[in-house]
Design a protein that fits this description.
13 strands; single chain; Four Helix Bundle (Hemerythrin (Met), subunit A); Aspartate Aminotransferase, domain 1; 3 domains; seven-stranded mixed sheet; four-stranded antiparallel sheet
Length: 518
């Protein structure tokens, strides 16, 4: 144990863990920015570039630990540190070397001894540093302070509009110069609570097998969110955790129907849902005038994708009556439930009555409202007792499980993300209004969505209109025909537009589309 000038008692390994996290965090920021951005000064008076700030931190480590603690001769040009530039890879190599040397110096030092040499008058630092332990503590304080500054510099230099970075398909699958407005991901970031939960796990390097002493936290977070947000209290013990809603659909199809059976669903519908029904050897039966012969499962998507319809209570009651007449379990996909626009309100299907609850499998996730699709975590509240029993009889690892990070993000979203969600809904409401005003001046069939961030635009005359618009307007939309594939419903003159982006990007999208649509 070591004590520094009456300050808190820490072990050398605790000290090295703290300084190592700070240095590794800064290296990760600079490495993530790359050579160009890391060597750029943000437009803030007095700010250094990330490269220069990390260079300064290495100067602090080398001088205070290497010089004043270990006694090595250290030449340092403090002013030049704040203007340093160069390749990021070389700087990251220096960080690794500095971490190794700091560990050796801290372990070899007697923290209570006086400094190994007299400090340079220009680098005195805080008053009262007279021992090696105090000098090492100053190193930590400097690293912690500048780690926070580097996070701010990163956010200033890499705003959320740099959406072509990373591995996301929405922008990664389109050609340079083309705007992605197709797949249902948002360009609007994530809730701070989610980001903090993930960064905390990364800082802890907490990627091992999870241990939940009080049980998996996801079902409890889901149940509290539904009760608070939608006025429905799910039954305790009925919630199961899956990787995504599509997996829930596939599992429910396999457990409640047989090949050749019909699955009733509103068409147009989310294309992967249609594909899952067909791949399973079942028949797609559009809800409506189609006869319900041989139907063994109803799938209700509410809010509906792609139309954005939010079903009223009387409409849900009619669907419940239909399900009861044919004795159908109902899979209610409510993944867009948190993205409903006033005066409309989401009503969970299972909340209609006790009868409804006993035949409903409610599938949802934080992924749409909180922009977490790649983290793969969803829940299913399984009302039918016989289905619940069959699922529980399956081998525990048969369906796989979401990662720890997916669970942490989901819990953080549902427990602490409400404030961010309200801000997001304000942005989406304004974007929806912009799309409505734009569509009103064009020869389109368009009904403003009551939920989701998806605009369903019809009346286009070109064959495969989404492909045509991508070629002519350099905007990728979703092809309408995909939303009725495998059925007799014709949606070939429709496209789906995702308006969950910044107002500036949305304005560019609409400006590009206008000449082509006219």
């Amino acid at each position: 144990m070591t004590e520094t000038e009456g300050r808190a008692v820490v072990t050398v390994e605790e000290y090295l863990d703290a300084t190592g996290r700070a240095l590794s965090g800064m290296a990760g920021i600079v490495g993530g920015l790359g050579d160009d951005l890391a060597n750029t000064r943000p437009p803030v008076q007095g700010a250094s570039s990330p490269y220069a700030l990390l260079t300064h931190c290495l100067g602090v480590v080398e001088y205070w630990a290497g010089g004043l603690v270990a006694g090595r001769a250290v030449e340092r040009d403090r002013e030049a540190e704040f203007t340093a530039t160069g390749p990021v890879a070389e700087l990251l190599d220096r960080v690794e070397q500095a971490q190794r040397q700091l560990a050796a110096d801290a372990r070899a030092a007697d923290w209570s001894e006086p400094l190994a040499q007299a400090p340079n008058p220009g680098f005195l630092g805080p008053a009262g540093i007279a021992t090696k332990g105090a000098a090492l503590l100053h190193v930590y304080e400097e690293l912690a302070q500048h780690h926070g500054q580097l996070e701010i510099l990163r956010d200033l230099l890499r705003p959320k509009s740099t959406i072509r970075r990373g591995t996301g398909v929405k922008w990664g699958a389109v050609a340079p110069g083309t705007i992605g407005a197709w797949v249902a991901d948002m360009d609007l970031g994530v809730a701070p609570a989610v980001r903090h939960a993930l960064l905390d796990a990364v800082d802890r390097e907490d990627f091992g097998y999870p241990h939940w002493p009080d049980g998996d936290p996801v079902p409890a977070a889901f149940e509290a969110w539904m009760a608070t947000r939608h006025g429905w209290t799910p039954s305790g013990g009925h919630t199961r955790v899956f990787t995504d809603v599509l997996q829930v659909l596939q599992v429910v199809i396999e457990q409640t129907t047989r090949p050749g059976d019909g699955v009733a669903i509103h068409v147009p519908a989310y294309p992967p849902f249609l594909a899952a029904i067909v791949r399973s050897g079942r028949r797609i039966v559009p809800i409506g005038p189609s006869p319900m012969d041989g139907v063994r499962l109803m799938v209700l998507v509410n809010p509906q994708n792609p139309s954005g319809r939010v079903f009223r209570r009387d409409e849900l009651a009619a669907l419940l009556d239909l399900a009861e007449r044919h004795d159908l379990p109902v899979l209610a996909d409510e993944i867009h439930a948190d993205l409903v626009y006033a005066p409309h309100r989401h009503i969970p299907f299972a909340s209609l009555s006790e009868r409804a609850a006993r035949r409903t499998i409610t599938a949802t996730s934080a992924t749409k409202a909180f922009n977490l699709a790649g983290l793969r975590c969803a829940v299913a509240h399984v009302g039918p007792p016989d289905l619940r029993a069959r699922l529980d009889d399956m081998p525990p690892d048969f369906f796989g499980t979401p990662s720890t990070l997916g669970r942490l993000a989901t819990v953080a979203a549902w427990r602490d993300g409400a404030g961010w969600l309200e801000e997001l809904r304000g942005t989406l409401t304004a974007n929806r209004a912009a799309v409505g005003a734009w569509a009103a001046g064009l020869p389109l069939r368009y009904r403003e969505p009551e939920g989701t961030y998806l605009a369903w635009l019809g009346g286009l005359r070109e064959p495969a209109p989404a492909g045509w618009l991508e070629r002519t307007a350099r905007v990728r939309l979703s092809e309408g025909a995909e939303f009725s594939d495998g059925t007799d419903v014709d949606t070939s003159d429709f496209v789906r537009l995702n308006f969950a982006t910044s107002p500036a990007v949305l304005a560019d999208i609409l400006e590009r589309l206008t000449p082509a649509l006219r």
